[in-house]
Amino acid sequence: MTLPDDIEQCELIATIGQCELCGKDPSRVRHDYKLVVHHIMRGPLRKKSTGKRFANLVLCKNCHDNVIHGNSRGYWAENRQLALLRRRRPEDLDLKAYNKMKGYGPDRITEEDLDKWADEETR
Length: 123
Fold this sequence. Notes:
The chain is mainly α. It has one domain (5-115). Helices cover 41% and strands 8% of the residues. It is built from 6 helices and 2 strands; from the N terminus they run αβαβαααα. The termini are far apart.
């Protein structure tokens, strides 16, 4: 049975329970603070990646805007987003599945690519 996208996203948010970038927990801050599911894959693959834990992050609205539009530290490249996923949920990172879904070769994005972002501050 396949769950609708919104149910899968609600389950991911409930499981993670806080912003994976800034660490804020909505139960401990103002009532209008909201978590959203951020799709690392863009364009036509965005919908296909919904529900795939290896292709999504849980972010607060402020962090989501910064990841998409950039901030003073610049745009969040795909590898940087995957590096954040590896740091927060290493058990969910599956580069082979991610590369396959993107139509890349199996080694297009590697652990070494993510290592370049290992020391990057999260904010």
